[in-house]
Structures are given as C-alpha cells and as structure tokens.
Specification:
The protein is built from 23 helices and ten strands. The protein has 608 residues and is of the alpha/beta class.
Length: 608
Amino acid sequence: MTYFKSILHFAKPYMGYAWLNIIANIFYALFGTLAFVSLMPMLKVLFQNATKINIKPTYEGIGNIGGYFEDLMNYYITQKIDSQGELYALSLMITLVISTFLLKNLFGYTAMYFITYLRNGVLRDLRNEVYRKTVLLPISYYSEKRKGDTISRISSDILEIQHSFLSILELLVREPLMILFTIVAMLLISSKLTVFVFIFIPLSGFAIAYIGKSLKKKSGRVQKEQGTFLSIVEETLGGLKIIKGFNAQKQFQERFGQSTNRFFHFSNRLMHRQNLAVPISEFLGILVIAMLLWFGGSMVLVDHTLAPEAFIVYMGLAYNILTPAKAISKASYSVKKGNAAAERVLEILTTESTIQEVANAHVKQGFDQSIALNNVSFKYEDQWVLNDISLQIPKGSTVALVGQSGSGKSTIANLLTRFYDVNKGNITIDGYPITELTIASLRGLMGLVTQDSILFNDTVRGNLLVAKANASDQELIEALEVANAYEFVTALPLGLDTNIGDSGNKLSGGQKQRLSIARAVLKNPPIMILDEATSALDTESERLVQQALENMMKHRTSLVIAHRLSTIQKADLIVVLSQGKIVEQGKHDELLLQKGIYHNLVAMQSFN
C-alpha cells in the first residue's frame, strides 16, 4: 500500500471531486439497500401476508427497531388496502420499488461522473510529472537504461495504474458502504441468519489472499519484458538502414520473437492466476447462497420464525452483498498488479538527479572574460577519462581540441554544459564555478552543434523555434542565411512550414547539419560548442557547413572539437589531447614546427 499512498498524493488537486463522489456513493449504497428492502411491502401485498395493523406503532428504542419498521410498514399497507383496495396498494408498492432502483442508478452514475475527473486528472498529472522528471534527469542516467523501458513506464505502466489503483477509488467508499447498509438491513430482518452468513466470509477471504499473493511478482515480470521488446522496436526503427544493409532482419526478428515469447509465457501465468478470482469468488458466493437456502429455508418451513417474503428479500440482500464483495476481491488483485507498475513509475520519480543546483545559485546573464578549466579530472565509471586538465578560453577566441578517439575531447564539452560534473578540480566562467550557476543560465550562454544532427519530426520552423520560441520570421530567415541554409529551405515544398520527417530524414546530411547550425545561430549565445560538426559530411557539404560555421563563430567564443584538422587551422589555440591529458598546444604553424603528435595527425590526414 506504500506505492498506493504515493500515487494518491497526485489526487490532492481533485479532492473536491472526491468528496462529491463520496456523497453520491453514500446515497447509491443507501438506495441500493432500500431497493431490495422495498420489495418486502410489495411481496406482502402480493402474497396477502401483511399483518393488519390499524393503530400506528410507537417507536420503543433501537433494540426493537426492526419490529418497529415492520409494524409501520404493515400499518401503511393496511391503510392503503382499506381505503384504496389491494390493486392500488400493489401499484403503490411497485412505484416505490421502481423509485428506489432509479435513485440508486442515478446516484451511481453521479458518483462515476465525478470520479472520472479525479482518475483522468491523476493520470494526466502523473504522466506529465514522469515526463518532466525524464527530461530533468541527467544524460548519465540513460547511459545504462533502455529507451523502450522508459517509454513503457510512461505509457503502459501508468495505464496499468489507472486500471488498478485508480479503479479501486470507485470501490473505496461505494462497496464498503453497500456492504455496511446491506448488513444492517439483514440484521434487522434476521440477526440469527446474518450471524450464520458471517461464518463463511473468512473462508472466502483466505482463498482470495492465497491467490493474490504472487500477482505483484508475476506482473512485474510482464511489465519489464514489455519494456524490453519496446526497446528492440525503438532500436530497430533507429537502425533500419543498417539492419537492411547487413541483411540482419532475421537476427532482430529472433531477438524480438524471444522477447515476445517470454512476454507470452509471463502473461499467461499472470492471467491464469488472475482469472482464478472470478470462478473461485463465484463458487464461494454460490456456496454461501446454498447454505442460506438450507438454513433460511428451515426457518421458513420448519421453525416458522421467518416470513416467506422476508426470506426472499433477505436472499436479495445476500446477493446484494456478494456483488460488492466480489468487486473488492477483484480490486485486491488489481492492487497487486498495480503495485508492480507503480514501483517502476515511482523509481523514476524518486531518482535524484546527480546534477544539482546549489542553494541561491547565481543567474549568469552574460559572458565577459574567459572560461577556465582548473586541474579538471573526470571518470565515467572507474577509468579516468581526463587527468588534471587546465585550459583558458578567453572571450572572443576560437579554441580547437584535437586528438584521437577516446582522448577526452567530447568529455570536455559535456563538462562545460554540465551534462556531467567533474570529479576533481573545477570549471569557471568569468571566475564563477559553473556548479554555482543556475543550470538554465549556464546553458543559456551556450550554443551546441553536434556531430549527429539532432532534429525533430516537425517543420523547419518548429525545429528552429526550439532555440528561441518567440522568434520572428525575419529572425528565422537571418539565422538560415548565416548557416547557408536559406536557399535549400526556400526550395522545400512549404518552405519554413515543411515537415522534415523523423530525425530530419527528408534532408541530406549537409542540410541537416546546416539547419542545426541555424538553430544555434538563432539562439545567439556568446559561447559556441562545436562537437565534430563536419566529420560526417562529404566534401561539398563540408565546404558549405564550414563556411556557415565561420559565419557563426564571428564575434563569439568558440570551442571546436575537430576531426578534420583542415577545418581548424585558423583557430587562436589548438589543444592536442592524448589519453586524457594535454600534450601540446599552440597555433597551427607553431605545432607543425614542433614535429609532435599534431604534426603526425596532419601528415596522416594529408596523406589520406
């Protein structure tokens, strides 16, 4: 129930609907009981079994309340039969029965009407909160997580919570009240018979608890496996060209088939156990009814201590108590399933981000002097990626990082943007440690262009507005012109309003990269980080993109991570990294004269 309480926290904004639901359910349970009790006067008239009472009975206290109501009912029946006749009295009793059933159903609908706002409101808020936390968590959190598993938690797990936890909100008041009112009515009719019924209730409770014991574990397996095959689908769609190009369809089909087979077996075990609920509760209900028929029948036929019409109404009430009891038993199974889903959802919500802002973090409005890396060391897990790096990047300068793959170039970019935090040393901007700045203001100072052009399934306009939501068309056009992208955008069918497809797949590599540059230009940040922005391009595209980059870097501070050394020859400072350490630094010509690592890298690329 711990998870259930955590989920109910999201119901607080909708407590008004909850109270209206409770009020409606009170009347639903009351009229649900009275609907069966109202059958008794009709049956008395029908069987001509009403005791004739001409003097209105007197209330003598709670101890004789059952007899008082029976005498009062007989008194009114006698009055109507004497004044209007038996047929009129019967019609009146039938009207009473119809009215009580009508009111029961009216209040039942009203209760459902109000709970709908609560259920769907909690579902919406929970999904929004999980998405907000998904975006908030650091990139390192997802380095070991499957994307499909996260998608499964936001979609199917939250839906399971609606079907399980939130569905029992309807039962929390309605069914217990229905049972309570029905038991009161049953006690008033025959306390002896009611005590007999209660002997069998613990038996059904034991059976229900036994069946539901393993549901949480089995449900957790099903939901985890669903996340696995969703991950395979996500990977398949992202790597479709490779799968087809290497004729690997069969391998991926086998992986997917193995996952769905496990899902099939886990689901079967879960459903077999869950489906036991209905037949067992049904059988236990019939068993109770059978014992009632035997014991109550003996009271009517042998002992003559119970009137036939009272026994018929009592049987109706017994059925009336079995229906909510079965609903509560089914809800207990739902809670077991919902626990597993809630645990997975709350795991995301309760995960603390490793990238935290300090109290009263400084809001940095501009960039005035320099960026400094001071004895920075960093490791992703156990192996150090950067070792004691110190570097100054003055305002307005272009600093290039070069080196072989794995030397730590991209790691420096990740640390500057606080996608990760340093393990030793610190990074400062204008003397402020970046850990003392608000994350929003820090990243607001920076524009990012990566090797992989990250675009969204939206229009050109929509992709650009990610950088500046309120940008005018003129600003969009100017950004596109700086990025050498305006010409190809105007040639698109709908210009700025053309959808570029999933990940921008309707565009060429060079077009996607120039659009990414235009997005960074539109943001107009003082600091630009270019992470191998031209490495994946052909010669012609590289020329256009390189020109766009040079346009963009004018009057800005730029950190360029370079794969093709021809693109950074004009840099103010070139820093050569090897195995996480700075081994050389200087201008292009200076480094060539040193005949060191940089000279060898240039020679290798020139030879190629």
